[in-house]
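Sample pair:
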Amino acid sequence: MLKPRFVYHTLADGSLRILNPVVGEEVWTVPGRSQRPHPNDARRAPEPLPPGLDLDAVCHFCPKQSRHTPAEKSRVVREGAGFRVLEKQTAEEALARPALFRRVPNLFEIVTMEFWKRNYGLRLSALQRRWKEAYLATPGGREHILGVIEEKLRHQGRGAEETEAMSEAEKLELADAFFGGSHDLIVSGAHYRPGATTEADLQSSGSLTPEEHFIFLSFTLNAVGELHRENPHIRHVAVYQNWLAQAGASFDHLHKQVLGVDTWGAGIQRRLEVLRRYPPYYNRVLLEELKARSLVLAENAGAVAVVEPGHIYPCLAVYSKSAASDPTALNPRELRDFSDLLRAVHAASGARVPCNEEWYFRPRNADTALPFHVLLKWRVNVPAGFEGGSEIHINPLFPEQMRERVLPALREIKVRGELPGADLGPDCRCEEGCLAYDRTGAAA
């Protein structure tokens, strides 16, 4: 086996040059170019919320604006001391109980229902047809669906006359995307966190309670499983999160996205190629490098959080220790441990830092094990002409700077009791081979 090299080279002037083999890009960090994206270094004080603002009607993802989002596939509601998932309700039923999280179709799919129909012959399943019929059978449901279709057509540039000329049957045919599409949003029920007084008091991943964040991840993984069941042509489900406009979000309202695709994508394929050549890469190359450079942030029984160098953007990462390469196969304890660390690095980053979650895990028909992990990238730098022409990328923060900003916040989070059983920084043992993905192969 040819062991890949993780190049981490510090020059005499302090410049850092990194080549992360699974990313395949050269990344430089240069003294004097660092920015200060930490939430405590905000460039301006947040504006107070306007008096009388209805916190349930701030944007199209808010509960009182549900007329702007397609038919809700499911929602999580509180029930007694626990939670319950309500599936495929009518419009009237869905509005009867407040949601902690909702799953709704993306109005502007990346891979559309029309794509699946024309290229793969996909049609609504029997369950999806029954749900569509039941939804359209109520006055509120029919009005809702036709309203969303007409809004979508306006966004696509259709004029009023063209829209009015379409028959109701033609419009309802377009609604198949709402009941059988493969691009969904997992949306928080709240726009602002409890007690919000300023525009910065958004409900973020880090402001959820540990239990709420665990439900958020569990609900997301339920959607991943359902997309696979309902669309046999999906080869992989991409899971990601855009937090704030600078990270690609249409609204500053907490949500994840799950997107079924008919390809693995270059990022997954590149990782699998590295692992085919050297299966223990993540244990014996990446994690060993990070341990040696004191870039391990936190560890509990089920996961490890690190600063991960070699990316275009400043990057934190959480790795599952589970042998399961598919996150839907994690047991509840493993998922809760992973969730606790992911929530903590969000909280330590701060709700005012725009960031993306990128999820990586083995596609279901791949023959190579890949550890389930999430990269959390701070979108605080804008690539310019130098990067495009040279294919050398400038990351504004040294990995050690990220550690010194995040680790103190993690210690505060642990003091509050929100990281039970976790070790931090130099106390993390990260024993050899602690990521179990490569012990059992792709069958895990």
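The longest strand covers residues 236-243.
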